[in-house]
Each structure stands twice: as structure tokens, then as C-alpha cells.
Design brief:
The complex is a heterodimer of chains A (118) and B (113).
Chain A lengths: L3 E4 L2 E4 L5 E7 L6 E7 L5 E8 L5 E2 L8 E7 L2 E6 L8 E8 L9 E3 L3 E5 L1
Chain B lengths: L2 E3 L3 E5 L4 E8 L5 E7 L6 E6 L3 E5 L2 E6 L4 E6 L8 E10 L5 E5 L3 E6 L1
Classes of the chains: A mainly beta (118), B mainly beta (113).
Chain lengths: 118, 113
């Protein structure tokens, strides 16, 4: 199946700093990528949909200036958590659909990034 | 809005059969998917239903009733490695373009020896 690579897997940073998370589709082109946030033992909450070459679509309640998304190529989307604070500590995970898949309903996930803000 | 409901926890023994239910309310609907997630890992796709009926993939089967806004995941011949969280997810149209994937709260399955 398709492979989605996400880096870094874990990051610890000081409050006030910015953190960039990369999500790459390794063997397919993804015009759309999805960014989720997950708290321990909870569901995946969709934060935003990243669209190649255009602005991301943010879910209600997600601060656009706080979580900057860039999808500059068909294989790379980045999420930057700006001026991170302890409440931003969470598991962030990206996903994409492989256009070669018949139904297009199958999401391939990156391995996730555990962000800890001190 | 969109909402999905699943049982929070299910416990079963090795070799048994377990059914995880999912009910949903959405303004639009393309299909229902199921994902498995082990602790600390990424979700992996299990199955997808767009039409009513049963889809079988090895030990896993998934069922959908669009009229009832209901689906379930059936796991047979349970193994210890099946202990994980299982999420149903609805895909639906988003505004005038694109597609949304919204996940249910997840069901934590514990398989006992």
C-alpha cells in the first residue's frame, strides 16, 4: 500500500517556540492531505484539510494563525504550530488518500508526531 | 453537524467473535470506514462500505445499513494482537467541494487469553 512519512516522530520544545511537522507521500501524489489531532485514549479530531497549491481548509474552532499549513507540492504538506504552549501538547497525525486506490476512501496515515511543550 | 457513536470498551477472549457497532448522523454520506490503531501507532485501514450489506476481508467483516445510519465491524477468531482501538469514520461531502473524514470516538478492544 501507499506510504505516508511523517517527521519528527517526537518533539519537545519550550513554550513560545514554533514547531514544524512534515508529512510526505512517498510513492504517490496527494492533492489533499488531512491533519488530525489526538489526545490520549481519544478520537482523531480533524484540524484542517491541506490542499496543494491553495489555502488549507480549517475546521471550526481551529486557529488558522496558530496552526499554519503549507502544501507546496504534491508530496509534501507541513503543519507549523506557532508560539506553542503546553495546551498544544498532543499527538498530531497526517493522512492522505492514494489516487490509485479504486474507491478513494482509504486513508493512509503517517506515524504521527508527539508534541510536548514545556 | 456530524456525530458518531461507538461503545467505549469491549472485552472478549481469544478465539471469540466480537461486534463493534457504530451509529452516525451526518448531513451527507459517501461511506463508512473502519480503522485499527494500536497504542502509540498510526491508524490502519480495515474496511469500507458505501452500499448496504456485508463486506468480508479475512477475519474482519463490516456491515452497513444506510437507512438506519448504522454499521458494525465484526472480528472473528480473535487473537491477542487484535487488542487495539477501533474507529469508525464517515466520509461525506464538504461544502461544495472535497470530502470530509470524521472519526468516531473509538472502541477499545481488549482480548483476554
Amino acid at each position: 500500500g501507499a506510504v505516508v512519512s511523517q517527521h519528527p516522530s517526537r518533539v519537545i520544545c519550550k513554550s513560545g517556540t514554533s514547531v514544524k511537522i512534515e508529512c510526505r507521500s512517498l510513492d504517490f501524489q496527494a492533492t489533499t492531505m488531512f491533519w488530525y489531532r489526538q489526545f490520549p485514549k481519544q478520537s482523531l479530531m480533524l484540524m484542517a484539510t491541506s490542499n496543494e497549491g491553495s489555502k488549507a481548509t480549517y475546521e471550526q474552532g481551529v486557529e488558522k494563525d496558530k496552526f499554519l499549513i503549507n502544501h507546496a507540492s504534491l508530496t509534501l504538506s507541513t503543519l507549523t504550530v506557532t508560539s506553542a504552549h503546553p495546551e498544544d501538547s498532543s499527538f498530531y497525525i497526517c493522512s492522505a488518500r492514494d489516487p490509485r486506490e479504486e474507491t478513494g476512501e482509504k486513508l493512509f496515515f503517517g506515524s504521527g508526531t508527539q508534541l510536548s511543550v514545556l | 453537524g456530524q456525530s458518531l457513536e461507538q461503545p467505549s470498551e469491549v472485552t472478549a477472549v481469544e478465539g471469540a467473535i466480537v461486534q463493534i457497532n457504530c451509529t452516525y448522523q451526518t448531513s451527507g454520506f459517501y461511506g463508512l470506514s473502519w480503522y485499527q490503531q494500536h497504542d502509540g501507532g498510526a491508524p490502519t485501514f480495515l474496511s469500507y462500505n458505501a452500499l448496504d450489506g456485508l463486506e468480508e476481508t479475512g477475519r474482519f467483516s463490516s456491515f452497513l445499513s444506510r437507512s438506519d445510519s448504522y454499521g458494525y465491524l465484526l472480528l472473528q477468531e480473535l487473537q491477542m494482537k487484535d487488542s487495539a482501538s477501533y474507529f469508525c469514520a464517515v466520509s461525506s461531502p464538504r461544502d461544495n467541494y472535497g470530502q470530509n473524514f470524521v472519526f468516531g470516538p473509538g472502541t477499545r478492544l481488549s482480548v483476554l487469553p
